[in-house]
Amino acid sequence: MIEGLPMRFPARGLPQSVRIHEVGPRDGLQNEQTVVPVEAKAEFIRRLSAAGLRTVEATSFVRPEWVPQLADAEQLMPLLAGLPASLRLPVLVPNARGLQRALAHGCRYVAVFASATETFAKANLNRSLDESLAMFEPVVGEAAAEGLRVRGYVSMCFGDPWEGPVPLPQVVRVCRALLDMGCDELSLGDTIGVATAGHVGALLGALSEAGVPAERLAVHFHDTYGQALANTLAALQHGVATVDASAGGLGGCPYAKSATGNLATEDLVWMLQGLGIETGVDLGRLLDTSAWMAGVLGRPSPSRTVRALAGADAPRPQEADRGRRGQDSHKEQ
Questions:
Q1: Is 253 in the active site?
Q2: Which domains does the chain have, with CATH numbers?
């Protein structure tokens, strides 16, 4: 990294700070064919926390056969007990059983995963769109009664690989239903990465007209067509201040084969730093973390910023492990 870069040039009309909702340990790893050891997942989360991320989505309490990569949720959560109390560790809960498992591990932040289209609802949840919303209602209600914060993911907001274009009113209807049942926040998912900046603005405008404030929204972009950063900037211009991203650009969707990697957290932080927007993230530590995970996975990181700033100097997994443990050991007490 070159000191002083990126240069900071704040732009008008943007948030002063952005909360990055890190999804690497859950959405980033869920589509990996080789199962990552639970100890490595815990170390990944510890490193992300040490890099300054305040929200790290840890895992999903799904049936093991659905997403084998996340079958170790019960083993993972106790390994995170020593992390700072201020760190949010959301978990995905697909149904009432998943919520009970999350409650048993003391989780305080949960998420449900809805769809804006019929076809994806059936592929992902084996239910129609309306049936899936009916399934989520008691889950959200019970979570709220237990004092948990509930996020509602809405996938396929900008396009569906089977249905094609998704009408804005259809997305608005699902978002409105999730808020009405008690979700605290909604994450608008561009699951196959087909959104463009104008489309983002149009959807956020339609949601605003339906009484959904930008303060209740997050955006979740995939970079299939290289549009994730442009779409994020469009969302910021419309008042959204929570952005989902995945360290190293890891990710995909096991039920939508055209879904490629998520927006890389490093690429997002680089852009936000250049705009003078605070994130609380130490980019150097984040780069080290993604280089380390690339070593665990045995392949280069797809993040452009990781490749540009780490490059040939990226530490081998063993070297990164020694360096980070020496610097951050006090964080893990």
A1: yes
A2: 19-332 (3.20.20.70)
